[in-house]
Specification:
The protein is 67% helix and 0% strand. It has 147 residues and is an all-alpha fold. α1 runs antiparallel to α2 and α2 runs antiparallel to α3.
Protein backbone atom coordinates (compact mmCIF):
# COMPACT_ATOMS: atom_id res chain seq x y z
CA UNK A 1 0.00 0.00 0.00
CA UNK A 2 1.33 3.43 -0.79
CA UNK A 3 1.12 6.42 1.51
CA UNK A 4 -1.72 8.05 -0.40
CA UNK A 5 -3.86 4.96 0.01
CA UNK A 6 -2.92 4.70 3.69
CA UNK A 7 -3.91 8.32 4.22
CA UNK A 8 -7.22 7.64 2.39
CA UNK A 9 -7.78 4.73 4.76
CA UNK A 10 -7.19 6.96 7.78
CA UNK A 11 -9.64 9.50 6.39
CA UNK A 12 -12.35 6.89 5.79
CA UNK A 13 -11.99 5.55 9.33
CA UNK A 14 -12.18 9.06 10.76
CA UNK A 15 -15.33 9.69 8.73
CA UNK A 16 -16.84 6.51 10.13
CA UNK A 17 -15.93 7.53 13.69
CA UNK A 18 -17.55 10.90 13.08
CA UNK A 19 -20.66 9.22 11.68
CA UNK A 20 -20.80 7.03 14.79
CA UNK A 21 -20.85 10.19 16.90
CA UNK A 22 -23.53 11.76 14.72
CA UNK A 23 -25.75 8.71 14.97
CA UNK A 24 -24.90 7.42 18.44
CA UNK A 25 -24.27 10.56 20.43
CA UNK A 26 -21.19 12.03 22.04
CA UNK A 27 -20.48 8.86 24.01
CA UNK A 28 -20.38 6.65 20.91
CA UNK A 29 -17.22 4.55 20.97
CA UNK A 30 -14.57 5.86 18.58
CA UNK A 31 -11.48 4.41 20.23
CA UNK A 32 -11.23 1.49 17.80
CA UNK A 33 -11.18 3.87 14.85
CA UNK A 34 -8.56 6.07 16.51
CA UNK A 35 -6.40 3.06 17.31
CA UNK A 36 -6.62 1.84 13.71
CA UNK A 37 -5.71 5.30 12.40
CA UNK A 38 -2.62 5.21 14.62
CA UNK A 39 -1.64 1.69 13.53
CA UNK A 40 -2.06 2.56 9.84
CA UNK A 41 0.27 5.51 10.30
CA UNK A 42 2.78 3.33 12.12
CA UNK A 43 2.82 0.59 9.48
CA UNK A 44 2.90 2.83 6.42
CA UNK A 45 5.26 5.51 7.76
CA UNK A 46 2.82 8.40 7.77
CA UNK A 47 3.52 11.56 9.69
CA UNK A 48 1.89 11.93 13.09
CA UNK A 49 0.30 15.10 11.73
CA UNK A 50 -1.80 12.98 9.33
CA UNK A 51 -3.33 11.04 12.23
CA UNK A 52 -3.61 14.16 14.39
CA UNK A 53 -5.60 15.89 11.65
CA UNK A 54 -8.12 13.04 11.73
CA UNK A 55 -8.22 13.00 15.53
CA UNK A 56 -8.93 16.74 15.50
CA UNK A 57 -11.89 16.23 13.15
CA UNK A 58 -13.26 13.46 15.37
CA UNK A 59 -12.90 15.68 18.45
CA UNK A 60 -14.57 18.63 16.70
CA UNK A 61 -17.54 16.44 15.85
CA UNK A 62 -17.69 15.05 19.39
CA UNK A 63 -17.81 18.61 20.75
CA UNK A 64 -20.48 19.58 18.22
CA UNK A 65 -22.63 16.57 19.19
CA UNK A 66 -22.19 17.44 22.87
CA UNK A 67 -23.41 20.99 22.15
CA UNK A 68 -26.45 19.61 20.33
CA UNK A 69 -27.19 17.25 23.21
CA UNK A 70 -27.34 20.15 25.68
CA UNK A 71 -29.22 22.42 23.28
CA UNK A 72 -26.39 24.84 22.45
CA UNK A 73 -26.29 24.01 18.71
CA UNK A 74 -28.83 23.22 16.05
CA UNK A 75 -28.69 19.72 14.53
CA UNK A 76 -29.03 21.35 11.11
CA UNK A 77 -25.62 23.01 11.56
CA UNK A 78 -23.72 19.70 11.48
CA UNK A 79 -20.11 20.05 10.27
CA UNK A 80 -20.61 17.43 7.55
CA UNK A 81 -24.11 16.17 6.94
CA UNK A 82 -22.94 13.44 4.53
CA UNK A 83 -21.03 11.47 7.17
CA UNK A 84 -23.86 9.05 7.88
CA UNK A 85 -24.16 7.97 4.25
CA UNK A 86 -23.14 4.38 3.63
CA UNK A 87 -20.05 3.76 1.58
CA UNK A 88 -20.27 2.30 -1.88
CA UNK A 89 -19.47 -1.37 -2.30
CA UNK A 90 -16.05 -0.51 -3.68
CA UNK A 91 -15.29 1.79 -0.76
CA UNK A 92 -16.21 -1.02 1.66
CA UNK A 93 -13.92 -3.43 -0.12
CA UNK A 94 -11.05 -0.92 -0.34
CA UNK A 95 -11.24 -0.14 3.38
CA UNK A 96 -11.49 -3.78 4.42
CA UNK A 97 -8.64 -4.71 2.11
CA UNK A 98 -6.57 -1.86 3.56
CA UNK A 99 -7.23 -2.99 7.12
CA UNK A 100 -6.19 -6.55 6.36
CA UNK A 101 -3.15 -5.45 4.36
CA UNK A 102 -2.10 -3.27 7.29
CA UNK A 103 -2.69 -6.06 9.80
CA UNK A 104 -0.24 -8.43 8.15
CA UNK A 105 2.53 -5.91 8.86
CA UNK A 106 1.71 -5.58 12.56
CA UNK A 107 3.94 -7.34 15.08
CA UNK A 108 1.50 -8.41 17.76
CA UNK A 109 -1.59 -10.55 17.85
CA UNK A 110 -3.38 -7.85 19.84
CA UNK A 111 -2.78 -5.24 17.12
CA UNK A 112 -3.86 -7.65 14.38
CA UNK A 113 -7.00 -8.53 16.35
CA UNK A 114 -7.83 -4.82 16.76
CA UNK A 115 -7.77 -4.42 12.98
CA UNK A 116 -9.76 -7.61 12.45
CA UNK A 117 -12.40 -6.58 14.99
CA UNK A 118 -12.76 -3.16 13.38
CA UNK A 119 -13.16 -4.81 9.98
CA UNK A 120 -15.99 -6.93 11.40
CA UNK A 121 -17.67 -3.83 12.86
CA UNK A 122 -17.37 -2.04 9.51
CA UNK A 123 -18.82 -5.00 7.63
CA UNK A 124 -21.88 -4.77 9.85
CA UNK A 125 -22.37 -1.00 10.01
CA UNK A 126 -21.66 -0.50 6.31
CA UNK A 127 -24.09 -3.31 5.41
CA UNK A 128 -21.48 -5.27 3.49
CA UNK A 129 -23.91 -8.13 2.90
CA UNK A 130 -26.21 -5.71 1.07
CA UNK A 131 -23.37 -4.69 -1.23
CA UNK A 132 -22.63 -8.33 -1.97
CA UNK A 133 -26.16 -8.95 -3.21
CA UNK A 134 -26.78 -8.24 -6.84
CA UNK A 135 -28.49 -5.07 -7.98
CA UNK A 136 -31.65 -5.23 -10.06
CA UNK A 137 -29.58 -4.72 -13.23
CA UNK A 138 -27.23 -7.52 -12.26
CA UNK A 139 -30.12 -9.90 -11.58
CA UNK A 140 -31.19 -9.61 -15.21
CA UNK A 141 -27.81 -10.77 -16.49
CA UNK A 142 -26.70 -14.35 -16.62
CA UNK A 143 -23.38 -15.66 -15.45
CA UNK A 144 -20.72 -13.86 -13.50
CA UNK A 145 -20.70 -10.14 -13.10
CA UNK A 146 -17.31 -8.47 -13.22
CA UNK A 147 -16.48 -5.69 -10.80
Amino acid sequence: MNRAKAKFLQEKLAQEARAALEMGGSNAPTEGYARAITLIGKVWGLNDSDANEQFDLIQQDREYVQRVEVGDSEPSSAPNKDLALNWTGMECIEVLEGLFETSIHLNTLNERMEMFNLAMVLMECQSMTEWIKRTEDEKSTRGMVSC
